[in-house]
Fold these 4 entries.
Entry 1:
Amino acid sequence: MAKTIVCSFPLDDHTLPTEVDAGGFHGKGCKAVTQAFATALGATVSTTDKPEMFQNSGGNVLVNR
Amino acid sequence: MSQYLKVNTTISGQEHLIEALQKQGFHPLVHDIALPLEGYGGDKRRETAEIVIPRRQVGNASNDIGFKRQPDGSFQPIISEFDSRKYNAKWVAELKASVSIARITRMARRQYGCTEPQIRDVETPTGRKRVVTFTLPS
């Protein structure tokens, strides 16, 4: 099955989170892909205790579900 | 005089921001240093910006729309109260999405060999979303 990366951008409210779903990736690969997309979006890793969550300087959250 | 409001968000990527504005039909001015925005009467305001949509492109009796460079290189939209009725949170969200999609499309092409993504708009309980799907070559 082909690997996909799905990004969802809110269109009604710029304060809502952007989501990244790295389908088909697992473990370190999953985190690496999500981090690559976070970096491209100007995001940095959040200080959250949930390693799958990233937060950018604009306050948006990227969630790799 | 309509006061300027700083939108509480930033948009990363000057090149893609200019491209996204051009796709909307604007011809933004790009300055090396931030220059004062102009009000609808041609008056210089204290707010400054490096990327400016001139007021005559914004609309009748409109003010310049600015994008002010932040220390991290991103840009903060500055829109007058008068013009924020049309250029509102939805406009900013769509602009930000357009810029972000352009950025990640380039990255996905270079880094993962992805072709053009599939893009569709969907309704969700929290509002409309633009869903962008990249398929990696097998």
Entry 2:
Amino acid sequence: MADKKGTGLDGPVPFLYPKHAMERSLHITSIARFARYLVTRGLFIGFSIVVGVFLTVVIANMGGYVDAIKKAEIEERISMAVYQNPANQHLTSEELRSLIEAKVAQEIKRLGLDKPFIRFDSLAGFIKSRAFLYLVNALSMSLGRAEHLYSSSGSKRVWLIIGERLPYSVLLFTSASLLVFFSSLVIALILSRRHGSVWDKMSVSLAPLSTAPSWFYGIILIIIFASTLRILPFGGLVDVPPPENRLMYMASVLKHMVLPLLGWFISGIFLGVYSWRTFFLIYSSEDYVEMARAKGIPGRALERRYILRPTLPTIITSFALMLISAWMGAIITETVFNWPGLGTLYMRAIRQFDTPVIVGLTVIYAYLLGITVFVLDIVYAIVDPRIRVSGGKGE
Amino acid sequence: MRTFLLTFQELMRYKSALVGLLILSFLVGIAIYAVVTIPYGEAVQLWRGTGEKWRVNPRNASPVWVDYFTPKKLARTLILDSGQAQRTEEMLGTVARRIEFIYIFDYNADVFPSELAITYKTNFQKKPPLVEVIWITPDGREFSLGRETLKQVGLRTQWHMLSVDEKLRRAIGGAPEKIFFMDPEQPERPVKGKHKIIIKAILFEPDAEISPQVIVYGTVHGMAGTDHLRRDIMVALLWGAPVALSFGLAASFGTVITSIIFAAISAWFGGMVDTLLQRLTEIRMVLPTLPILIMVGLFYSKSIWAILATLLVLNIIESSVKTYRAMFLQEKNAPYIEAARSYGAGSIRIIFRYLIPRVVPWLIPSFVLAVPSYVFLEASLSVLGLGDPVLPTWGKLLSDAYSQGALYRGYYYWVLEPAFLLMLSGFGFTLIGYTLDRIFNPKLREI
């Protein structure tokens, strides 16, 4: 089996086999080397964020095509206004047209649409293009105003729009992910102790259930609990009208959370248990574990010191990445359950060509991910003394 | 070939793989049947729902087999042609004729029909015929459906949807499919027995002909039921199989192959190339996959192949490349590679003839395991309204069912049928994938 080398992470894979695990290598010999490693890692991660956000800016503007849409909108709006203005009645059609043209040009200039969206002919040209401006704004987290979407208080500020939905996504998906993560870890550990038992075999044969995404189970659960049994709501955040009492309100939200949570849980738990179980089993058949067992180290201590300890980096990684992805919500699950989180916001923003919101959501995610990866690099170096630090170079 | 046979033999030793293979052959069977019996163009045409093809189907009808599980007898659609009617003809003066059709049918379902319609096929030149319809219920109530002059519609059939005729509704005080069929004593139950429909037509041209047809729409239809546009869901269930299989296999194969080539190049050349590719995988991590697919779907093209192409581009730099790269790094220094180098093989030759074939066995499980995730991806995009605009797929069925409120209105068959097939294909591929993983991964085999 090929042993995976490298100090970085393997992306948002929920789970890594030992072939991806760290190689035994040099100790951290000096602080300077460690610092240099951190700086290079930081630079690389920063670079990834910049490029990733830039690509999103370009895609979300359809490579500049959104400009054409915006210009057409401006032209329509202004000509309507000019034609309907009674003060302009005495003007000839020639004069009207030139008036409209002048106003359109002014509006386009005001919005900065006269500058090219993107150009690569020279560095100066690129810096002056709007794509670069958008990139700088996004990276400095000045997310600006939305094109069409509003927050519930009526504001167009992207920060407010995102901010008012973030808690709902975090509430639902953090609790869902935590539930899946810890239950699969605990069940897997128990199963790996009783490897070969009926329960263990059952967990293996149930693993294919996890191929279906959570929205799929969501729909089935809606049929069972909402349509047929009528004991849980179809979707939404809270009853209509919302209960006045704070406690009742929370109870209502919890009631609405049950089905999406359950859908997420069913779609995650089986694969989670199967993968962690296999992972622990592979680790528990390592030579040093056999050796320790032969020496007569009791089961629990063996598990703690010889199986959990070396697998800790993997567990931490998948935990952190799972939390990050939970912060982004889940577009389809939220859509199916009509949950007012970031996933449905993403969907609405894309549908309405609301680029500031799309870019805002992406850049927040990129930063969260970048910071997590960076922190994980540090944590790795601390929890895993075998980690090889070679100035950030892969091999 | 020999390795393939050996693998196959090994695979057959596992019960789970056997089940998986059975499921897969069932799906492949459906796919072949679909493509053979309903050619691509016809499937697209049918699903677009234009033409007269679907008009005689009931709307939102359950599958026929639902009838066996319900205590009530559900209604099947009755289509009464003029051939089944008693026809009497008499001359009125020199040219005009009166033709009378009497339709008699037995209604014995425990539920009301879903809709009623009468169609007329005529071939008059200038003077349109006049028709008058009288409906006599089993308990002897008599309703006049009024007189109407058929409009000039060429040779096409003229439809009179009784159920949406506002004038008629007002005249008889409710929906005709309820009023005609209910028991006046117990309005919520349909009365059983013989209905009689008299259609009198007066034709004003010597060559003119008319053939009326009475349609009593039922509440069940076919093996799969129908949707809100009266389309037979079976078409999409059948055609969903080839689409899902080909999309899943193509996407899985494409992504695995492209990322393995990238990984091989990255590992073999090392240095700058390697660093560049490593950075690319990190950039890829920042890019949100689903939103990008949604944007491509909305902004550029909803075609399933455009989505596939985007997936391939995104996956070239997927983080799995790192895993493959690690395998290649080990292989790179193997003696047989050195041997190849010593006989003067070039980089391209070594990569494609020696490095890649060597790791293929490792890839087969992940290739098989990735298929269902792409099948479900297609369904996911469809649920968001980004399904392929012309192809009938399982995801489109789910999406239609969801947007038409099938969950609220109790049309569960509409959701459960495609869901069952999706789940089945998911199971088939994963069962085989896990078994292959055990075969090719000796470390797992011991477990």
Entry 3:
Amino acid sequence: MKNLDSVFAAYLFAWGIFFVYYLTVARRTAALREDIERLKSSLSRGK
Amino acid sequence: MTKHALGIAAVVFLLAAAAYGSFFVAPTDVRQGLIYRILFLHVSSAWTGLTAFFICFVANLMYVWRRAPRWDWLGVSAAEVGLAFTTVVLVTGPIWAHPVWGMWWTWDARLTSTFVLWLLYVAYLLLRTLVEEPDRRALFSALFGIFAFLDVPLVFGSIRWWRTQHPQPVVMGEPGSGLDPTMWSVLRFSWLAMLCLMTLLLLARYRLEAMRGDLEIVRREAEAA
């Protein structure tokens, strides 16, 4: 089982990169949604 | 369960099946042993990254032609997703190279052109943060994206045109090159799983960019009112 740790490390890094990237996209989307809601409510207050 | 959650579950299942195939279905390579199994992850990520950059290139061309914001949104989304896949390529490659070559990295044509590709798309994303006006930003980044894509044929051809430390192509290579049929099937399945992951990430990123575009329009209207 030579180099098994390297193979696991490669898979772990790869899945980690994809997972973290997906999380950043989800977080940015949630933050933007909040911005839109805030803007909508401030616009409706101004009317 | 929502459509989105179902999509995530399907992609996770495909990725798990691809990993199972890489570890338990593909036969062990006689010369490299276990370490060659990184190939299924590394090569499929590389092909998927290049596919994402191709989508970015087409979107950039379409933006220059049509000037419709949706092409800009698709371009930046594909560039970012392609960058994530190319990062995986640049991380998994050295992990494979260290036990096989005895070194993590060498500046041969394939590795250098791939690293340059990664830098070009980082520059593409950075460029977007420097231009505030949306239409100018979209046009500049589309033109830069078209220029950045010129490196993709170089990455593809590097191991065919020059002598490199990186292995010669096993797919679309010279006569006599190729993979064992089971390895080839596992590699194709891994690529399919990666393409599904790319589609999922691309859709999520596109939604974010479309929301940003809408927000910019609302802000402009609010400022004008």
Entry 4:
Amino acid sequence: MTETVVIVGGGQAGAQAAVSLRQEGFAGRVVLIGDEPVLPYQRPPLSKTFLAGELAKERLFVKPAAFYEKVNIEHILGETVSAIDSSQQLVSLSSGQTLHYDHLILATGGRVRQLDCPGASHPQVHYLRTLADVEAMQDKFTAGARLVVIGGGYVGLETAAVAVKHGLKVTLLVARPTPLGRVTSPEVGKFFVDVHRQAGVTLCCNTGVESIEDDAGDGLVAALVTDSGYRVLADMVVVGIGLLPNIELAESVGVACDDGILVDEYGRTSVDNIYAAGDCANHPNPIYQRRLRLESVQNAVDQGKAVAATICGKDKPYAQVPWFWSDQYDLKLQTAGINSGYDQTVVRGEISSRSFAVFYLREGRLLAVDAINRPAEFVVARNILSKGLGVCAERLQDESIPAKALADLPAADEADSLTTENTAPKGAQASTQSGVQKTPQSNAVEHDRVA
Amino acid sequence: MIKVNYIESDGTHREVEVEEGVNLMDAALDNLVPGIDGDCGGVCACATCHVHVDPAWIDKIAPMDATEDAMLELTDDRDESSRLCCQLKASPELDGIIVRTPAGQH
């Protein structure tokens, strides 16, 4: 009997799951349903090279149309799933069509968090999540235009960088004391403040928006009133204040959710034959010994692969070091790991040189790195994190030691502690005392290309 | 158009025609060459488009930068012929180039 996998969501995770099902040998029917009217595409370039006009639209697509045909992946685009019946294993589409599934993958992603101040629906207010969002703002992306960006996350910073390079007059409003406050440290945030100011962005931290007025009554110019009492005029406003996971469909069939759709390491939800992957999914991460919901390409791709493998009866649990990147000006920020809970930072290199790495440690163990124009430090940190290796703060800082060698602790200094002998962390006993809860050997993560 | 030869680990050989300036990762995706993922979209951030360049062509390709050199460390079977093909742009000097996709890259 032919089995059918229905994938709800046509983003990176959904596309990867479809492709990986075929790579894993799934011979049944694969149907990908996307609410956007286009084939799955990559979102990272939307606030980078695509916004800058440096990348052709056809280069955004995860795979060309011919690929789906060749490997027999059906796609239904521009339609939403209106309901799931988990007892009958049916999904209903907005068109009225129903589809039976044997396995259902929820790759529903997220939607932008909206401003909720008075005037937030002003016609010049834009959000940046989809291809259509960017296409709608590109006409106004002209030299001399006044742009106000609200939000100091990746999307806000990248948008500001592209805009100021294009000659727009850019004001960036950041609610926290520094940008990237949720994911990085004050040192790195402060560095990006300086970078953007030097590039010509007017950047205000600790600044929220109280209301948005229409400046002249014609809808053409927005006037933002900040909580510090300023009034800033904008021909265009771009808001990047985060993402909300799309969990409503899951909840409607009783799938357990808590900051995303809860899945196990195989991508299975609490309801039989329903799986989740990507931005919408909240997974148990063995490296950090806690649940994580990640919004990244790496997570979408790797979870998509894990779910596909599970459906094909293969044992490939998801256990990866999270990684992220951001391109701004001449800078490539590469982050490996999650720094949450760090009690020490170690800076390698001079921040003023625009090439440095900040390592985050907790109780002496590495949690994460932010590498700015330091790809070798990013790579070695991924290696250290995935193998659960020990580190030594003095060595991390010492530039006379090549980055590559930071994963090797010298045999001499080690009696005291650090689990130098290879990959398997010390399991239970380390996890009781260490802030970085280490995973038992059976879950140890092999060094892997993450792809 | 520039001819690019992709050889898979099982010996499957594909010759594809690539427009000048297009990188060999995009060209592989466009032509459904398996074994090249390009998860990051070609910005040298993921190391999923690793290829081994045929020795006869090594000297004709542009040298790698520090980012590519570092990212290649994430691949399993790096050697002196290793490159990330998102960083290799088709040009007349590369007409006929041969690259091999590694076994493990799926």
